Amino acid sequence: MTAELTRGQNHPLPRARLEIRVSAGTPVVAGATLGDENGKVHGVEWVAHPGTPTLPGLEVSRQAAPDHRLAVDLDAVPDAVHRVSVLLALPTGGTGPARFGAVAAPFVAVTGLDGSEVASYTITGLEAESAVVALELYRRQGAWKVRAIGQGYAGGLAALLTDQDLPQAHQLAGDIHEAVARGLARSVPAPPARTTDGDRSRPAAAPAHGPDHGATAPQGVTGPVPPTSPYDSQDSPGPQSPAAPGQHGTPQPYPGGPGDSATGLPSASGGGGPIDYSHPRRQTGAPPPPAPTAPPAAPGQPARPVAGDATGWSMEERLYNQVWGMFEDLARTTAAYRSAVDFADSRREKELDQVLSDPRSRIGGQGDAAREAARARYGQLVAQAKEVLDRDVAQLAAEAEVVEPALPTAYARWDNPVWHAYRVPMEIPMAVRLGDLHLPEADRIRIPMLVRLPLERGLWIDSGRSGSLDGSFADSHEMRRLGLETAVAHAARLLAVYPAGEFTVHVIDPAGSGAQALAPLVQTGVLAAPPAVGAAGTADVLARLTQRVDLVQMALRAGAPDALPPGLDISQQLLIVNDFPHGFDDRAVNQLRYLADEGPAVGVHLMMVADREESAGYGPLLDPLWRTLLRLTPVADDHLADPWVGHAWTYEPSLVPPGSQVLQQVLTQVAAARRTWDR
Asked: Which residues of the chain are modeled with pLDDT < 50?
């Protein structure tokens, strides 16, 4: 039975050969020191770290990673060793967090070689510390035990090693961080955690879509998997859980963390010091800055809206939650209006039926008066409903006017001035904007369609529609061109919101028909390689990406993310496929399906520009492919539906204004930053 330790608590070790598994949610350095019976570390040769990963009876990881497995053979350690201390530290000099208080609480478990857990410990209560002694394996009267330590050091590794009486502590700490920096580029980020997100607090990752009106199979947002954006349900912009009008939800804790199966809290059983009941997965850093407050409204007037007044731990998260709240509020008020109109219509029909059911009232002025009264009551009910709708829409429009200019680059339209001050970011944002949504009853309000990052499903730019809602029509050639231009705009935005070197784009254009639309990506040099053409080029790109998916999957399943081949690009990958299925044989189609199914979990994403009808020859073989992808259109279309109230939302893609040079300017900066990063 697993012992869930609290700080200071110990537990006997039943065997000598063990594994120590670390899960931190962010890349950390894992190491260990060997100490004598007084805990003294006699020299650098008693420290296992990425630069010297192997000591007698002990082996640690060779680089920083979110998850580690440390191998321990207590029978093989020297007789002079009485303590083995497991160390965790945050890498220095990178773009990651600088203190453990800003990340989820690290979880450490001692297991047998068969994976059976002996003892576990969630290291809670860390704040400014950047290094911590997690566990201590110690020898007592010939038997070995494990003790939960959780001693953190704000001074980092140098302070930790100094505390263990190591004379060369500062020099060794520098050597460790230098060794980590050399291998940090090969570390694999932890796969995104799936969380339930009852309200609009920050979940752990992802995107999706909803039932498509006019398509043969649903496409859209994922079903029972908790939505991670307002538009994440099976082909629909499905809301998560409703909130009261005007409210924007409250953050929910992360469920299912290490420890208690229901709450994730450390077990209260066992001895030791006081138990820390803070949630191990809850952010414990500095409290969020206060949300902006709206200026006081005039008496009798609604409160003035202000950007960022939703809940969240950062302004980015507040704006995301505020957009989500606007989506909910518009869906709710529109549903109320439609329901009121339906009620008025059914009441009018009922009253007219009652009038006509009496033969005496069918003729003469009595019947005409009854019919006129029924129509008047109908008009009154509709007018009341319209008044409420107009009031709510006016409030939402005022909110949109202050929110839109305040959005960061990842959430902003291409015509937003924020793009003119664009700089390549240092961190991945919560979400990215892929277009706008609106309803016919409130056509002037555009709700940003924000999809969570990293993407959890690929994108399908449907080039098969020949007409748009504005009555204009385009032939198939024009729709293909518009579809690829939309794909380029989406790819450029994804490149722009990721840090340098963390997002790579590949293009397959078998017939070379998309050269003009692809020019911004090709000319600025942001592509990993020139667009692949012909059957040979298509096969080569698909084979390389398929191999990458296989390798990363095997590394993650084996718990050895540092075992990837040197030179493997572990950044997020996006494959743009133009004019599918032209140039694809059966093998290539199967590889494409494999990438769509398995790729997003390991950072390989698909963006297809295709007309589904042109691939009808494959029959039902490709139906799972279309259902896997989030369907978007290059022209305005009402194909996104939310399962909450059943609205058909009109989607408009996020495109660069005609004549604007913003796309070239942004991509030029991205390419320059990538070249600097590659050096």
From this structure: 185-287
